[in-house]
Structure formats: structure tokens, C-alpha cells
Design brief:
Blueprint (H helix, E strand, L loop, with lengths): L15 H10 L6 H21 L6 H9 L5 H29 L3 H21 L3 H18 L2 H6 L5
Length: 159
């Protein structure tokens, strides 16, 4: 088999492609300033509320505020609903499955490995990357909470 070798054009600046990439990504379009302002205000308000009331794991709120689509009011509502649904699915998975493995150390370890596998598989298989990221965050934060002494004290014990 013969291979055709293509040569890339040599540039005088080593990062010229990066400058061109940034120029294309940061090019202005109608409504961009308003969109950036809404995203900045949303993220800032969420973090002010989380810091004021000392809400644990407040970083999730800031991530959620930035992942919500703001293309139109309908897309915003659909995106927020998707995030709420995926958060509920992740929380249900954690609460239901953790009760079965909390008392047995090796089973708990295997559950953490399996949960991370599910999270990474969701990241690679789902077409909605925002929902996949939310699910993976729920699994990562929740699996660390399940092993905590607080959870073990408050979780009901199976005989």
C-alpha cells in the first residue's frame, strides 16, 4: 500500500494556528454580549448564594448555571429540565445502590469502580454532553459521600 504524504505549511510563528482558532471562536455575533452577561450574572449569583449560606458542593450550582443553554427561552427551559432529570437519576442511582454495598468493604470498592465505569461510559456514549457531564459529576461527588462516616451513620443498616 502506498501512502500519500502531506506536508503541512510551515509558519513563522509556532502558535499561529492557536491565534487563528481564537480569532474564529471569539468573533462577535449578534446577541453575544447579552449572552455573556447573562452567563456571568448567573454564575456569580449562584456562587454568592452558595458562599453566603455556606452551601456544601456549591461548585455544582455554578457548573449547572454555565451548562444551561440560553439560545432561546424554550431551549433554556428544556436544558434546565434535562439537568434536573439527570440530577434526579444520578441521585436515585446513588441512594438505591449504595444501601446494598455500604456494609461490605470489597463490595463497596467494586461498586465505586463500577460507578465510575458507568460515569465514563455515559460521557463517551451520550450525545447530550451537558447531561453526561452532570451525571458524571453526580457519581463522582456522591460516591465520595457514600464512603464518609456521616453517610454511614445516617444510612439505614441492612441486617
Amino acid at each position: 500500500m502506498a501512502a500519500i504524504v502531506q506536508s503541512l505549511p510551515e509558519s513563522s510563528q509556532p502558535l499561529a494556528w492557536f491565534a487563528e482558532f481564537l480569532k474564529g471562536e471569539l468573533a462577535p455575533y449578534p446577541g453575544r454580549a447579552a449572552l455573556v452577561a447573562r452567563m456571568t450574572v448567573a454564575g456569580t449569583l449562584v456562587m454568592i448564594i452558595c458562599m453566603t449560606f455556606r452551601i456544601s458542593y456549591g461548585f455544582q450550582g455554578a457548573i449547572y448555571a454555565l451548562l444551561i443553554t440560553r439560545e432561546s427561552p424554550r431551549a433554556t427551559l428544556r436544558s434546565a429540565g434535562t439537568i434536573l432529570l439527570v440530577t434526579g437519576i444520578g441521585a436515585a442511582y446513588l441512594l438505591i445502590s449504595a444501601g446494598f454495598v455500604i456494609n461490605i468493604s470489597i463490595l463497596h470498592f467494586l461498586w465505586i469502580i463500577g460507578s465510575f465505569f458507568v460515569a465514563f461510559y455515559a460521557l463517551s456514549a451520550m450525545t447530550n454532553h451537558g447531561a453526561a457531564a452532570i451525571f458524571a459529576i453526580m457519581i463522582a461527588v456522591g460516591s465520595s459521600l457514600v464512603g464518609s462516616p456521616w453517610y454511614q451513620r445516617t444510612m439505614w443498616k441492612y441486617p
